Amino acid sequence: MAGKDPIIMREKDEMRNWTRSMRAQGHTIGFVPTMGYLHQGHLSLIKEAHKHADRIVVSIYVNPGQFSPNEDLSTYPCDFQGDCQKLKAVPGGVDVVFNPDNLYAAYGNSSLGSERNGEMREGRLVSCVENKWGMGHETWVRVENLEKGLCGKSRPVFFRGVVTVVTKLFNIVDPDVAVFGKKDYQQWKIIERMVRDLDFGIKVIGSEIVREQDGLAMSSRNVKLSPDNRQRALSISRALSRAKFDAENGQLNCHELINAAIPKIREAGGRVDYAEIVEQESLEPVETINKPVVFCVAAWFGDVRLVDNMEIDIN
């Protein structure tokens, strides 16, 4: 029920023991991994999880493993208390918020605390993601083909970090169901493949994109947009919507659809990272729409990189 205070857990063993206890009582566990700064898109994932499980865990953890050296994870927005209030108000509630200090801490000691810059404190290693002392985290999980295209082209370490931390979280939380948003379409498909290939007993569900009333896909990064760029960013969803409309009305040439969409974004002041129409499962580019595809776009407005997509199925 709404208004339930979630249990805040920070230790891995505490989280594991809770799951084992719940499962021994016959409950099923739904899991929504997040990096916090929650919005309605995140909350929709929790609502979806309630359809598939009767106990819900949400993780809030800013993962250093998916940031490259030129990306400053210390600037990632954070509002843990605000997040907890939002979770408390979700219909059906959330049972546990898993908020570990540091999943990359040396020797598994997460009690050392979380320091996003990955340095030493009082002579002790706090974050050991590829640290210069040779004691770094060196076991990584990769989905080699699916991670190469789209976002993987400009962010080469991103999916290695995402898949590794999701694997860690799956091993700690041990859910029956995990829900991911389709806004990060490539991420969702990569996690699906990882679960399949590594024989995790977890059902991965993709939840539909939640948009603002004007069409902008909800994202924690939207708060960093200036008012002007916030309006300009609408060009992404408008270009995608037009492409879908044209495809459903007979324009099946992907080259033509892409070449019509890119100028709309550029004219609005966006710097297009990529705009590609790919097959929904393999994420391989297609030339003609004769199967279910997804039109994926990433573009910069100011110093904010936004991703969006739209599924197209003409059958």
From TrEMBL:
A GO BP annotation: pantothenate biosynthetic process
Record keyword Nucleotide-binding present: yes
Subunit details: Homodimer.
Domain of life: Eukaryota
EC id: 6.3.2.1
Family: Belongs to the pantothenate synthetase family.
Localization (cell): Cytoplasm
Record keywords, A-Z: ATP-binding, Cytoplasm, Ligase, Nucleotide-binding, Pantothenate biosynthesis
Protein name: Pantoate--beta-alanine ligase
Pfam families named among the record's database cross-references: Pantoate_ligase
Pathway(s) the chain acts in: Cofactor biosynthesis; (R)-pantothenate biosynthesis; (R)-pantothenate from (R)-pantoate and beta-alanine: step 1/1
Entry's Gene Ontology cellular component terms: cytosol
Catalytic reaction annotation: (R)-pantoate + beta-alanine + ATP = (R)-pantothenate + AMP + diphosphate + H(+)
InterPro entries registered for this protein in UniProt: Cyt_trans-like, Pantoate_ligase, Pantoate_ligase_C, Rossmann-like_a/b/a_fold
Entry GO MF terms: ATP binding; pantoate-beta-alanine ligase activity
CDD domains to which the protein is assigned, alphabetical: PanC
